[in-house]
Amino acid sequence: MLSQFFILSSRGDTIAFRDYRGDVVKGTADIFYRKVKGWKGSQAPPIFNVEGVHFIHIKRSGLFFVFTTKFNVAPAFVIETLNRLCSLFKDYCGVLNEESLRLNFVLIYELLDEVLDFGYPQVLSTETLKTHVHNQPVAVETEKYHQASFMGSTGSSSIQRSVPSSAANKPIAVSLEQQRAQKKELFVDLLERLTVLIGADGTVLRAEAAGCLQMKSFLVGSPEVRLGLNEDLVIGMVERSSGYHGVMLDDCSFHEAVNLEEFERDRVMSIIPPDGESTLMNYRVSGDFRNTLPFNVFPLVEEGESARSTVDVSLTLRCNLPSNCHATNITVRIPVPKSTTSVSHELGAGQTVEFKASEKTISWKMKRISAHAEEHAKFKVSVSEKNKTTRKEIGPLSIDFEIPMFVCSGLNIRFLKVLERSGSFSPFRWVRYITHSDSYVIRI
After folding, report:
1. Tell me: the pLDDT tens digits for 49-102?
2. Cβ(29)–Cβ(6) under 8 Å?
3. Which of the pair, 63 or 387, is modelled with greater confidence?
4. Sign of CA dihedral 139, 144, 148, 152
5. What is d(CA 10, CA 362) in angstroms, rounded to the nearest whole number?
6. How far apart are CA 48 and CA 35, in angstroms?
7. pLDDT tens for each residue of 138-149
8. Inter-CA distances, 113 with 120, 125, 174, 387, Å
9. What spatial distance separates the first Cα and last Cα of the chain, rounded to whole Å?
10. What is the bridge-based pairing of β-strands 248-249 and 234-235?
């Protein structure tokens, strides 16, 4: 089945390596890294073959997670096994990055020995493995990004109303002593990734959002968790045709433990959450949030005098978010002609720019932009030669961003309750909304 498993850093350093069958030549980690870095074109595919050895990999947090095999295995099965392994490492180490894996290398090898036997996957459940894992994880401090809001039943001002998102980056409790000492918390994330294409005339040609509802549980025992979504939520084209206007999803899928009958009736998900991180719901929505797109860009391209061989590009970035929201880590990428030799710029306060000559792109960056704000930038692109196609080589623009506590679909968590039979504890419940750009492209 699966011959080897290894984890490589972005520099090619081997973080973990396990040979399960001994039927593959040595040095496969070096072979894989050279092949990936030397791949012609953009990036290497997740599956490729080198001299009879299949390399199947995924990339998470800048790390390569790789299986090798000589057998004709099902690719989807191996990719799913890699994803499950990444989830296991994150649950037991708290955060998935190079520092965490190096500090917890003994725990990583213990998990690898329990998960696979002679190359055959055995068990990939976080909860099941707790009884077989005995090494204690080493917690790693992580950078603080977005805030998670508190959903409680009391209005006392003494209760903390928000925590940094890094509060969820802690390992699960393995021993009984750890479970007793661990803070009882429940983290719920509503995440959306936007795919948007806007034409040169400002028309929205495509607008889609792929979202998921993730839960990370640090509860003791098996309490029931009830989570309520919008009461006016409708799913599928059949319900839309009735003329009812509410939050509309094209389709969705649920965790196997969710009570679907109650969700159909009351839009309430009831589940006994497994230990660690799990995805309660995946959904997709398109077309219904065109009026709530977070950004518009107004470009102006003017060709200078032919003798000067310059092109002037002016950009205005407008943020359309509600007044209580803001966007962070904004990067606008502008492709420029292949004959570009240099780029000069005029920027506002708090902005930076980088011209990558090898990629012929300009990266215009801002750390934060508030709702209804506008940012401006001007670029003077110098080219070695100007022809009829020089103007057409500029664009399209692409935008990367993060928006905390906002989702374009309008999906909302009405309540989050933990039902404990004994009623002996009241856990902290934290909710976070985040919107990312998956592909946000604007034609010029």
Report:
1. 999 999 999 999 999 999 999 999 999 999 999 999 999 999 999 899 999 999
2. yes
3. 63
4. positive
5. 24
6. 9
7. 878 765 445 666
8. 11, 14, 17, 62
9. 50
10. parallel
Phi, psi for 314 (deg, rounded to 5) = -115, 135
Pair 403, 325: CB distance under 8 Å = yes
C-alpha span between 264 and 252 (Å, rounded): 12
Task: Output the six-digit token pair for 92.
Answer: 């037991």
Helices and strands (H and E) in the chain: how many = 8, 27
Q: Which helix (H) or strand (E) element contains residue 307?
A: none
Average pLDDT over residues 319-348: 93
Q: State the amino acid at position 9 in one-letter form.
A: S
Read off the pTM. Answer: 0.80
Contacts (Cβ under 8 Å, ≥6 apart) of 234: 240, 244, 246, 247, 248, 249
Q: Pairing relation of β-strands 185-198 and 428-442?
A: parallel
Closest listed residue to residue 15, CA positions, set 87, 117, 121, 86: 86
Provide CB contacts within 8 A for 377, sequence distance 6+.
Answer: 314, 315, 317, 345, 346, 347, 348, 351, 353, 364
Residue-wise pLDDT tens digits, 16-47: 999 999 999 989 999 999 999 988 877 899 99
Given a contact cutoff of 8 angstroms between Cβ atoms, the answer to whether 333 and 361 are in contact is: yes
Compute CA 92 distance to the chain's CA centroid, rounded to the nearest angstrom: 19
98 backbone dihedrals φ, ψ, rounded to 5°: -65, -45
